[in-house]
Amino acid sequence: MKLIGLTGGIGSGKSTVAGLFRTLGIPVYESDSRAKFLMNNDPGLRQQIVALLGSESYTSQHEINRAWIASKVFNNPPLLSQLNGIVHPAVFQDLVDWIALDTQQQAPYLIQESALLFEEDLAKRFRAIILVVAPAEVRIDRVMKRDGITRDAVLRRIENQWPDDRKIPLSDFIIYNDGERALIEQVMDIDKMILHLTNGR
């Protein structure tokens, strides 16, 4: 099975691009949403997170307290690294199980969306990598509106990710989500190139 990586900085529009690939019949594994699901539903993972960050990691409704965790780890790189060391292995096993599903085996290729694809040294697992880029101010504005957080909070999150100019040379395809170039046309062009790359299998 051919696995394609999809990445981009916070607020770049990865999820929108992932949705467009789905409309073309390409299955997409969204690492962030699956990580949230596992953090909420995997008892072993929950126990490790509470041991690392405290009982405030979960709300009174027993759901992951993402805002509180973000306030703890985004200003503390070593703690963020420890959290990633707990969550990422669980997500990888979940990805392996997802790839093995019969429905995925019928697809010409699969996509894994991962915000930290390069930062976590995941590039080697993919046949090709798609990078979504957008102007910095557009990204900041999107995240502020989406998450209801301050500009400074967004900038702190951006600081934990590689800049686009470091990721572009390492990527096979670039999608520009700048409001000027149509996303669907870029996605369709890349789909055709990936099908050619993978020989349609």
Q: Can you summarize this structure?
A:
The chain is an alpha/beta fold and 201 residues long. The protein is built from ten helices and five strands. The protein has helices spanning 14-23, 31-41, 43-53, 66-73, 77-99, 102-105, 136-147, 151-159, 164-167, 183-197, and strands at residues 3-8, 28-30, 110-113, 128-133, 173-176.
Description:
This protein is of the alpha/beta class and 201 residues long. The chain is 53% helix and 11% strand. The chain has helices spanning 14-23, 31-41, 43-53, 66-73, 77-99, 102-105, 136-147, 151-159, 164-167, 183-197, and strands spanning 3-8, 28-30, 110-113, 128-133, 173-176. Helix 2 packs across helix 5. The longest helix is centred in the middle third of the chain and has 23 residues, at 77-99.
List the keywords:
single chain, 201 residues, alpha/beta, 5 strands, 53% helix, globular
